[in-house]
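Recap from last week: sequence in, structure out.
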Amino acid sequence: MIEQTIAELKKLVPFKETTESGDIVLVLAEEEEHPALLYALVTGIERDTTRRDEWWHLSLQLLSVPPQSVVWTLRTPQFTGQESFTMGGKGRFVKAIRIEKPQSVSSPGPKAKGGLRLVK
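Predicted structure tokens:
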């Protein structure tokens, strides 16, 4: 079921191919009845030196109420959305989203105090 949800998300969300500190990631968590979707801020990516293979400590600030800090130990394909994985027997998917910069207005209007543009 999680693979079908991932396929639908890839049609709707502008994902990045890489994940870096400072990125916003979409986290899909398989739950009992419905999948849970939430955003998280990547606050750090550090190599797990206790393992022979390439694993990373992915530090996340979950943008939930209340906000929560978590650290997950994942391989690169897992935190870049190249593959889904399980935690506690439940499917998971993590991938950074591409945030588009707003397009600048071609003809700025008059400025208000404090440098804001007046919109009528």
